[in-house]
Amino acid sequence: MPTLLTFGDSNTHGSLPIAKRGERRRLGPRKRWPGVAARRLEWELIEAGLPGRTAQFPDPVMGAYMDGREGLNIALRSHGPIDVMTLMLGTNDQKTRFGADASMITAGIAALLDMALGDELQDRHEGFKVLLISPPAVREVGLLAGEFLGAAKKSAALPGLYAELADKRGAEFMDAGAVIETSDIDGIHFGAEAHAALGNAVAEKLGTMLT
């Protein structure tokens, strides 16, 4: 049975849209998109979604451990062997406080791909494939709009940049924004129906990667 590692942020964790400060709601394991995908494929699942995680930035508000470079290294050394890893990050890198444009965000993703596809970790797992997923576009609405000023424009550029990067690095690519949209409650997260749709789309894509 193949093993899938899903590495990402709150949208991999299953966090639901936030309507008020301090709200922390999470979908159950069978309704989160990683669980939907793994069940459909009948694969073993390792979930590694951390709310607030970035591709490359220690967060001065949420903590240095939000830097995905540290988290990915730990995840790939803690689990395995794995056969496929999904990587969906970049939403939190669009926060205004980081001052990152779309190219800089993509550069952070490149560092994570270089780590995952490098000889050391590939040898550790006896080889595994990576599916890079561009997250659905941020909408500057609701409670979190002030944290993501300018993110809508950045989001629009990410799928093309991620697709080019995946091609250059030898990873597979999928645009989550072609399947789902973020909620109009907070413009960042998405609900159960979107998780189901994304999980099924990811499963279909992953099913072609090990054939």
TrEMBL record:
InterPro entries according to UniProt: SGNH_hydro, SGNH_hydro_sf
Ranges where the SGNH hydrolase-type esterase domain occurs: 7-197
SUPFAM superfamilies found in the cross-reference section: SGNH hydrolase
Pfam families (alphabetical): Lipase_GDSL_2
UniProt-recorded Gene Ontology molecular function terms: hydrolase activity, acting on ester bonds
Protein name in the entry: Lipolytic protein
Species, as recorded: Actibacterium mucosum KCTC 23349
